[in-house]
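Entry 14: structure prediction run for Carboxylic ester hydrolase. Input pasted below.
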Amino acid sequence: MLWLFPIVLLIACVRADASANLKAGKVQGTSCRESQVNSFLGIPYAEPPIRTLRFAPPVAYNSSYPGGTLNATANKPICVQFGGATQPGYLSSPSSEDCLYLNVFVPASATTDSNLPVKVFIYGGAFVNGGTADPLYSGCDLASDAIVVTIGYRNGPLGFLALEGTAIAGNQAVKDCLMGAQWVQDNIAAFGGDPKQVLVFGESSGAAITWIISTMPSAPSLMNAAIAESGAGLGTQDNISYFAQGQEYAQALGCNTTDISCFQSKSVQELNSAQPVIPVLTLTSIGWRPFVDGQFIPDQPQTVPVKVPFLAGSNADEGTFFALGAYDSPTNVTEADYTSFISQSTGSYAQQVMQAYPLNSYNATSVVSPIPGYAPFYALANIITDAVNLCGTRRVLDITTQAQISTFAYFDAHTPKCTWEVTIPASDLKLLGAAHASELQYVWNQTVDLPPPNGNCSQTSQEREISQVLASAWTAMAKNAKPGDVNGTAWPLYSMNNTQGLLISNSTSVGSINYTICDELWDPYELARLQNATSATSNTATSSGGSSAGAPTSTSKSSGGAWIVQPWSMVMYIVALIIGVLSL
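Run finished. Output tokens:
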């Protein structure tokens, strides 16, 4: 048996030596403390987007690492945050404009011949916040049978400002993510990954970016499949309304739109202070996001099918997160708020919406649990859930399956035992239900020490099974372009006539996802909204993110203050985006 000794020694060396050799030089990583996974943190994929490269498309990193070796043992600063209040955890991590880095997590046993599937993640944060340093996105618990990559990209105006007729063309953040995906194609084999088995997945605004890039002609060369968690179908603006927003921002900064050096000279504090203050309940569509520029994004993504096998879904109580952030407490939401919200948001459809979500249907049983007096709160939450996430996702599934692309769906109705972010009180979990982003702990296989990194809550045995199902399915999408089996039953293809998918409650099963409210209310509403926008004046936004009245009005004026945000990161800002999506 002595002949086995060299093999055992080789395996031990592979696990101990967390390094990879790239064209730019050697990358020296480190080992995760409690798993057989190596991490490589802060690998540059683009040149620092600073000075003359501020607001510019990313420029690929083609340099050699200083001294020939990159120390990749610690996170690099996250991209500058524009969401407002500083939060505990990753949002209080160091930030910088020099932030176009990615993290790679690799099974410690991997060699360059392993040809492992690769899961590339694009984080969410309302296009203004988020970063790869969030401990929720550590691949140490996920990269057991696949390589995991997280991409850092520019937030807020640095990632999305567009000025008509200038070199600041917009969509910088989307281009960042595309370049990160190209880096994976060019370099992942050095870590033991197979560039032909790449899944790109994202959540919330990260799911929106994932969905948009998966509709592009280049998608099949960058990914084998895509997954959008609670973000497919999120609104984009047209160039007319978006350029108007850029003009307003330029005025707030005190810059002529043609003077690029002025924008490049402003401090981060000045960039943040010049942002518009967005009231929670507003009909405006101001907000940093991808937009249809006619070139990089030539058409409304809502009209373009995804080009690769696609899985998308949403959660049963997406809206509770936003409604609670907007009103602080469910008891603060009155019947007058309910009526005003619907009337202002849905215009001529208001009566139909009220009939679909009558307050008396929430008095006995709320969305999550029977809590007397919370009817207006849960009604608003349900409207947001259905109009934005459920039906937006369904429309993308429909147009993609019509293009003969393999399409899969899920619906998460499970209320988690543990919170997934330190900013979310555990006492609010019952109130929130299957809230926005609550599926992330399962997708990332974060089963203990919740909220990460040092919490004291552990998932139930049933939740650990959910984590196993989702983590394995996401890996299967990378490897086989289909999510595989669920408890011995094949995850069915989605079709318009048979809306089957994965149902998540206290366990996982295969069944029909109920999109009736989309057929009866929100799809006809969206069609009417788009027709109204198309026939309106040139000042009217034609995207799902546009407002009915056209360009932003005085209700969204520039201010010396930062973007209004509640103690929960970004929620008020996202609510404003949601209102823009709903408004006629």
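Notes: The first strand starts at residue 19 and ends at 22. Will compare against the previous run tomorrow.
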